[in-house]
Amino acid sequence: MKKMSKSLAVLAGACAAMFSFQACLDNDDSDTICIYPPYQANVLVTVKPTGDESFYMQLDDSTTLYPNNMEASPFGAKEVRALGQVVEVDKPSNGYTKAVNVLWIDSILTKTTAPDLGVSNDSIYGTDPVDIVKDWVTIAEDGYLTLRFRTNFGFNGTKHFVNLLTNQNPDNPYEVEFRHNAFGDVHGQRADGLVAFKLDSLPDTQGKTVKLKLVWKSYDGVHSTEFDYCTDKSAPSSSSLISDVSTGMNAFMK
User: Fold this and answer.
1) What order of strands is seen across the sheet that includes strand 210-218?
2) Which of 4, 45, 68, 145 is close enough to 57 for a disulfide, judged by CB 3.0 to 4.6 Å?
3) Residue 178 pLDDT
């Protein structure tokens, strides 16, 4: 995430205007929703294990971060998207772009795209509305589409189901559809969720930047927006994606 690419050192205390999530919706199976935490973050990264229990963080398509004060990933061998707060330090970066101290880091719900189930899409993936929030964490980068979305949560233990469907438009292979199944939990408090989808099921763009079109059902009808997307800008990882990750941030989504 490019939010910190220019000046990491000054960002630790400069995020007062950022979002404030209340908790993270988390699920034990492969689909859980995450609500923003009640603390400040200044990075959105991909945590990438290197095979020897160490790891690095991909900040954006060209910037990597070396965790100077951490030897092992808190997520083990899993590759995940994560929010965190870091401070740049004057230490060796061990071949990465910058060395940082990690003040805190927590994974968000990280998923693969969902298979098209045809006539069963509505019953399985749902048709409940959401609003996609224009924000620094709503972005396509490093091979992922990360979305901040807003909907109603009853906070009654019901876990919402969110997915990203591909192959919905035969004329555009880079059109994807966000789906939300609230399982009847459509009343209560309006809150924001955060989820990241791995885009490796999309056709390789062969080094070109294309428009990734996102379609979703909002409270006032069907909406869409576009993101710049390039497959080759996704940094390689030595770890295969674990389709979902459940941590303290993820508690009401799946």
Assistant:
1) 161-165, 175-181, 210-218, 221-229
2) 45
3) 98
